[in-house]
Amino acid sequence: MNRIYMDNAATTRITPPVLEAMMPYLTDIYGNPSSIHGFGRDARRALEAARAQVAAAINARPSEIYFTGCGTEADNWAVRGAAYAQKRKGSHIITSAIEHHAILHTCQQLEREGFTVTYVPVDEQGVVKLDELEKAITPETTVISIMAANNEIGTIQPIAEIGKIARARGILFHTDAVQAIGAIPIDVQALGVDLLSMSGHKFHAPKGVGALYIRTGVRLQRFMQGGAQERTQRAGTENLASIVGMGKAIELATANIAEKAEKISAMRDRLMRGIVETIPESRINGHLTQRLPGNCNVSIRYIEGESLLLSLDLKGIAASSGSACTSGSLDPSHVLLAIGLPHEIAHGSLRFSLSEENTMVEVETVLAALKEIVQRLRNMSPLTPEALKQF
Question: pLDDT per residue over 43-79, tens digit each?
Fold first, then answer.
């Protein structure tokens, strides 16, 4: 059975050039970057070369890049670090209702610690309501955190406009760009962000490595205590091989990004169009055009998303019923509820996420398989109009 992977928003595979770049740092160049001997200096040079690669990809300075263990750590550090560093100025944070749980749960914890948080609503396409965001700002507001693109429905947010709003009021602005890096162009100068999170395994680097961009002049409270790594800001010996892989991966991911996005968008559009044309009572979630190139989030009535997911898996097709971080939850997606979907429709949702490694042939295979699965599951469903007529 030929297997088809369309869950790239959950994680991507390490590509051969990235693995090749990593291998020497798993075997021969194994020194600690903090050591002053030759082994350590070799490791340090590799660490700083990767930092420069990450910085160049987002138009930042190498000195503004700090490596972390993952995107979640970068999110936590950005929001908590900024909130506590700015506490003398105020204790109000603004975020959106559709953020990743790395942000939402951090904000909820800060509320328990005495901060106040406003969760700005989004419209039916998942776009943050800028008028509501501006109205939420008070003299106590010190941090705004809005994701660059949503991990479930793929909607791209107006980050540059939010950056202007924050900058005009002297508020620190953080964006979770975990899903956006490598998918769309990201320029921290043009966007006007002060802090930006990323995660390597979303763009063909290994799992367990991320980074936080901190604009020069912005001060955060330290997130981890210990040694003097990452210029005393993030303690812990650096995961050198993975960092090298992240540097190579982001360099490859951002090269010819427009050309790759065009190819991926064509496959995504065919998938979206094929679903709504062949499966009655299906709908695409998220903005139809202002979305990540590889994201296709669909709701199909009268069927549970988990049933669809398992049936696809039996045919060798990997997709998701939501974000990977919440796949163990039986609750409907908070993102789908925030855009106004009722519980019963939100439960019947799937997310396909494509990369440049997918093909149009695979798209056609998925469409044919999904049509057959939906028909079979609906024939067994007690929720369809036809089934309800029998009662």
Answer: 999 999 999 999 999 999 999 999 999 999 999 999 9
Tokens of 61: 């300075």
pLDDT band at 380 (very low <50, low <70, confident <90, very high): confident
Phi, psi at residue 7, to the nearest 5°?
-135, 40
Active site residue 107: no
The string of pLDDT tens digits covering residues 282-323 is 999 999 999 999 999 999 999 989 999 999 999 999 999 864
Q: Is the dihedral of CA 364, 365, 370, 376 positive or negative?
A: positive
Which helix H or strand E contains 350, and what residues bound it? Answer: strand 349-353
Q: Which of 70, 107, 296, 325 is catalytic?
A: 325
pTM exceeds 0.70 for this model: yes
The pLDDT of residue 320 is: 94
Average pLDDT, the chain: 95
The DSSP secondary structure of 191-253, one letter per residue, reads HT-SEEEEEGGGTTS-SS-EEEEE-TT-----SB-SS-TTTTTB-S---HHHHHHHHHHHHHH
String of DSSP letters for 254-305:
HTTHHHHHHHHHHHHHHHHHHHHHHSTTEEEES-SSSB-TTEEEEEETTS-H
**CB-CB contact of 198 with 181 (8 Å):** yes
User: What per-residue confidence (pLDDT) applies to 339?
Assistant: 97
Which amino acid appears at position 177 of this protein? A
Nearest Cα residue to 335 out of 41, 97, 75: 97
Q: Count of H helices and E strands in the chain?
A: 15, 12
- The reported pLDDT for the residue numbered 382 is 65
Angle at the Cα of 23 (from 19 to 26), degrees rounded to 5? 130
Of residues 55, 23, 64, the one with CA closest to residue 181 = 55
